[in-house]
Amino acid sequence: MKLTDVRTAFPTAMSRFGIYLFALSIPISFVPAELGVCIGAAGWLLEGMINKRWQFYRHTLFIPLLFYIGWNILASGISPRPGHSLWALADNEWPMFIMLLMYFTVENVSVLKRIVHLWLFSASIAAIYGIWQTFSGVQLHRPEPLHHMGNYFRAVGFNGFYLTFAGFMMSVFVISICLAAQQGRLNYRWRYMMAALLSFLAVLGTFARSIWLSFAVVVPVFGFVRGKRFGAAVTALFLGAALLSLIFIPTIRDRAYSAIVPSENETRLNLWMTSINMAKASPIIGIGEDNFDYYFNRFKVEGFYDVTVHPHNDYLTILVSSGIPGLMAFISIWVIIIFTGLKAQKYSSHPYLKELALGGSLAIAGFMTGGLFQNYYGTFANCWGWWMMAGLTMASSRLSTESA
Fold first, then answer.
1. If you write DSSP's letter for every residue of 263-307 in order, what string do you get?
2. Can you tell me the distance from the alpha carbon of 324 to that of 149, in angstroms, rounded to the nearest whole number?
3. Interatomic CA distance for residues 24 and 123, integer angstroms
4. Residue 325 and residue 284 in contact, taking contact as beta carbons nearer than 8 Å
5. Where are the domains of the chain?
6. Using one digit for the tens of pLDDT, what is the confidence trace for 23-34?
7. What is the pLDDT of residues 64-118, one digit of tens each?
């Protein structure tokens, strides 16, 4: 191969390697995953500098996205702790680069498939590890004991935190069931079915109520997208499985019941009211990223708290940090991505892209549902899940349009 050919091909290979490394690593370790994003970004930059081919595609999404980032920079910059707040903003939002990399650089379906397959392979290993943790109570890679949940233990996977693990496994489940529903031979789909089963069991083992609730939203939607009969059957199957779990597994029953007991949710309710007090004081510009603890004592309502670092609600977190404009931009970002995926699912002629776009959209809907009760977007670890699903959805949509 000539030197000029190597120089031409190297940036593309570099971008692909970076995304592959991210996909393979993210269910297990953030460090190589972040390195992969940096490598991928460097490849994209070299593609423009060496080959004079700047990979950029316009989309309506970038309007609220740019506003959201700009408004948060403003809110953080004028906050009482601008340095702290701007750094926290950068740390929390930089995972969106994986979406940009996928949308800009993934140029054929085979590359997208490889990304998904690497991710599902690694995620299945993480799911098996999480299931084992639920019954053994042991982390092989950390000395900390796992939290007792009745006769079981709360699974945290390789992530070390049950909510992060639950969110990732929810997205694995949704993507897997959508891909398993493709037209095709059963001996090809069994891999997706196995990944779906493992991830579902792993989510049960996290005892994360907010993600359990997200299943109640995304599973029926997954079914009804395919028709009323299929939707009714899927919903009935899901409700039956949930009912059997509640009847025969007391720990799951107790955990589910705790969601509707006020005394079990006193901290969350107090944090929500405290957040509303903060939002009333600064409804337009907010208080800046990661300043909830700074203002907490000034605005807190009286009552019991076992944690005070964030509002336990993604929408209140955004409202507090960047006001009503920031919240509207945040919601707009994810609504646009979801509708982009649903449009691709409806009109794409490629079966794989149809199902991947649907899966990514439903996974984001799952995160948005869970975010009503927990802090799924408020830390960079959880943000990787959101933005990877956005990347798969956006890349599927663009490839669907190009192949039409």
1. GGGHHHHHHHHHHHHHHHHSTTT-S-TT-HHHHHHHHPPSS--S-
2. 38
3. 8
4. yes
5. 1-55, 56-403
6. 999 999 999 999
7. 999 999 999 999 999 999 999 999 999 999 999 999 999 999 999 999 999 999 9
